[in-house]
Amino acid sequence: MSNDPNLAELVVRVHEDIQPHFGQGRVADYIPALARVDPRQFGLAIVTCKGETASVGDCSVPFSIQSVSKVFTLTLALGRLGDTLWQRVGREPSGSPFNSIVQLEREQGIPRNPLINAGAIVVTDALLAGRGPQATIAEILDTLRTLAGDPRVTIDAEVARSEADTGYRNASLANFMRAFGNITNPVDCVLETYFNQCALRMNCVQLARAGLFLANDGIDPIAGQRVVEAQAVRRINAIMMTCGHYDASGDFAFRVGMPGKSGVGGGILAIAPRRAAVAVWSPGLNTAGNSLVGALALESLARRTGWSVF
Ligand code: GLN
Fold first, then answer.
1. Residue to mutate (ligand 1; options 31, 67, 291; most atoms within 8 A of CB)
2. Is the pLDDT of residue 9 over 70?
3. From the CA of 230, how far away is ligand 1's center (Å)?
4. d(CA 255, CA 6)
């Protein structure tokens, strides 16, 4: 096992390892615009802290990053609010599905963590303070374009609309938390912003590049810019490890051993601290709503590189 693998060879080997599984899993169909995506696609990109990159498969095909966006809004909120954010959202695994409402009543409208839907909706509400959805969505999009070093990152208006049309559960979560006083803006403004952030459209190369500051103590090593404090990045990585795959976070830590965040579009961003950021995409999901082939690819990559943090 090498700690400094030949990246070009590595991505080819990982691609070979998982080929027999292509097409496995079920595409998310509760958001109609996502149900039409071909499940046989697979992309992988690695960007290292030294600025090397390697990619394979459908690494240039844009997809809906969905809940992977929660990592970036959390970063923005911690930068803006600091530790006061933790008065409104916890940092414990939920042990429940991503869109669950069950704990909220018992826990007075304080979501377990910022990476489940309820928690991310609170984070979005915090980002809205003092301004409207348009300005907030523009800041989120601008941040992702800057981090990715690519102005072609967009928001898929059709996906955002599709989710707004069918987002009854997210509307319930937001209204429920508003009743506890943990949502402070009008619920429709919060949801509009949340649906747009989830509809960010990026490819694996852009996503890995955008997440690189998480592997480098909060500094984007290519742009040479500090994105957020090192302490915030340690905490974001800890939350990704413990909560980034919902009720399957333990299994992901066991199999892959890297902080990771999944989305129902089939993307996963995984962090190898002080080494690299990795993005995989394959739309077929397992029963916990995480990319089935994507997790297999990261398992193969972790085995081949020794990039597990354990
Ligand atoms: N936009 C999706 C939702 O709110 C995000 C869920 C996910 O990616 N797990 O339902």
1. 67
2. yes
3. 28
4. 22
